[in-house]
Amino acid sequence: MLRMTQNDGELDSLVRKRIRALRVAQGWSLEELASRARLSQSTLSRIENGQRRLALDSLVTLARALDTTLDQLVETASDDVVVSPMIDAARGLMRWPVKGDPGMSVVRQRMTEPPPDNPARMRAHPGREWLVVLSGTAILMLGHRRFRVETNQAAEFPTMLPHAIGAEGGPCEILGIFDRDARRGHQRPEAGADADAGAGDSVGDGSRA
């Protein structure tokens, strides 16, 4: 049997509710999920309703059928739900780590300068970036293309394409999400690059806004 050592009753109830919620979100009946998990419909019904003990083997098969993991199925909220940003005032940056994926980070940046005219100042590195413009208008240079990104619009792109971003017509604020490779790419200075290259380099690269 699964041993629950912290707030056993609350965790037990949470896991049962989570199983039902995930099933309903998929649009599956009890019969369909039971078939996918190779359980009887009555067994699944008793699991959801608290009439049957939570067995480890049943939870493993249910997690697999629900396209999740056992850890996620029994996960509880940690104490540090609210996280304060790390602030770099000189560069106009706020950065938050993503606990669920330590390789990812979220960055907020204020930009005032347009992207660079010189293609040599555009960066390329492994990874993928996603950003949304919180206010103002941003210009995203991507390879040989130029994209205008307005307030509340988002952009997502592979960072192996040379890229740079800046403001148009006044300051803009951007919220960017970086995977592990993209974050590392922006932490490594370009060979021969000026450390204060300007807002033309992409969000979160340590450039001055």
Task: Give a verbal description of the structure.
By secondary structure, this protein is of the alpha+beta class. Helix content is 28%, strand content 24%. The chain has 6 helices and 9 strands. It has helices at residues 8-26, 30-37, 41-49, 56-65, 70-73, 180-187, and strands spanning 86-88, 93-97, 105-111, 128-135, 138-142, 145-149, 154-158, 163-167, 172-178. It has a 6-stranded antiparallel beta sheet with strand order 1-2-3-9-4-7. It has a 3-stranded antiparallel beta sheet with strand order 6-5-8, with no helix packed on it. Strand 2 (93-97) and strand 3 (105-111) form a beta hairpin. Helix 2 packs across helix 3 (41-49) and helix 2 (30-37) crosses helix 4. The longest helix is centred in the first third of the chain and has 19 residues, at 8-26. The chain is elongated. The termini are far apart. Residues 1-6 and 190-209 have low confidence and may be disordered.
Query: Which percent range describes the beta-strand content?
Result: 15-25%
Q: What is the oligomer described by this structure?
A: single chain
Low-confidence runs: 1-6, 190-209
The level of helicity is 25-40%
Question: What is the average of the pLDDT values?
Answer: 80
Radius of gyration: 23 Å
Q: Order of SSEs, N→C? A: HHHHHEEEEEEEEEH
Number of helices: 6
Strand segment tally = 9
State the distance separating the first and last CA atoms: 56 Å
Main attributes of the structure:
single chain, 3-stranded antiparallel sheet, 6 helices, 9 strands, 28% helix, elongated, disordered C terminus
